[in-house]
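for the writeup, i need someone to sanity check this before i put it in the appendix. the sequnce is what the collaborator sent (i think, or maybe the updated version? ugh). structure was predicted straight from it, no edits. if anything looks off just tell me and ill rerun, i have time this weekend
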Amino acid sequence: MPRLTSKTIELRRVVVTGMGVVGPLGNDVPTSWQALIKGVSGVSTIDRFDVSDLPVKSAAQVKDFDPASVLDRKEVRRYDPFLWYTIGAAQEAADDSRIVFANEQSHRVGVQVGHHDLAALARLRRPAVAQHLAQHAVASVQGRGLGTVPGH
């Protein structure tokens, strides 16, 4: 099949085969979607650290996510919570897709990861840190057989 092209980039067809969410509205797609259409806010009082000296007291935090549902104890201790959430969402997306991943086809599978901390680090002119964290997240996802990022 010929590829569609534009002046600046080569366009390819993409098929979304599965979705996963770990976020302030819920820790899976159905819960998040229902909260979204009902207009539920994911913002609540910050409860993970002391905010008494801070001007901001609320944030959109992930709630009630059990990292042991997708990671072993050693990985839970080793990984930052953003990786817990990334791997949890990637696992849900892989399960949702019902695709059996085979090594010989891994170059045709991609994982799109969106995470606010990575964007914040990039905006704070810390692109090297953001890139390192993104690569670690992708490597963690790849290590579970959940896909690869083409070209990396």
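Residues 121-126, 147-152 have pLDDT under 50 and may be disordered. The longest strand covers residues 43-45.
thx in advance!!
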